[in-house]
């Protein structure tokens, strides 16, 4: 087995951190699939480079984010990246820091799938609580009512 997947994931992260989004996208298969937790405003499956861009726009409507301490594990066609991320809600200014685990699949020299798992989506949603209280309803703990979606 080769270390193809970890090498690609590390290079993608390096390019994103350097502000080279086009270079990072070049490492992704044109039909890439990305899954975010359905409980988040940008949750669901996204397909292709256009889907990745749409996911970024949906995320950026709500939060700014810093990513630190990337750790990549894997071999061959699969890799796991663990990062520490601080999300700051644009509407409230509140921040939350969580670990994020991403599962990567690689085929034919390109990243073909990313599945993202944030450590505590309830904590992340609580940063938005004041911004969505009028439209969805929240408790003082940042949990939502009405199905748990913030849209």
From TrEMBL:
Pfam families: SnoaL_2. SUPFAM superfamilies: NTF2-like (SSF54427). Residues 9-114 form the SnoaL-like domain. InterPro entries: NTF2-like_dom_sf, SnoaL-like. It comes from the Bacteria. PANTHER family: BLR2505 PROTEIN. This is SnoaL-like domain-containing protein. It comes from Parafrankia colletiae.
């Amino acid at each position: 087995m080769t270390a193809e997947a970890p090498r690609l994931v590390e290079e993608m992260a390096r390019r994103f951190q350097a502000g080279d989004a086009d270079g990072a996208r070049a490492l992704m298969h044109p039909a890439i699939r990305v899954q975010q937790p359905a409980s988040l405003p940008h949750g669901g499956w996204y397909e292709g480079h256009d889907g990745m861009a749409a996911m970024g726009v949906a995320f950026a409507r709500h939060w700014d984010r810093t990513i630190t301490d990337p750790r990549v594990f894997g071999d061959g066609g699969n890799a796991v990246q663990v990062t520490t991320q601080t999300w700051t809600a644009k509407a409230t200014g509140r921040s939350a820091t969580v670990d994020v685990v991403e599962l990567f699949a690689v085929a034919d020299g390109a990243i073909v799938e990313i599945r993202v798992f944030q450590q505590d989506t309830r904590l992340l949603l609580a940063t938005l609580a004041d911004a969505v209280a009028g439209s969805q309803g929240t408790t003082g703990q940042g949990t939502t009512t009405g199905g748990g979606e913030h849209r």
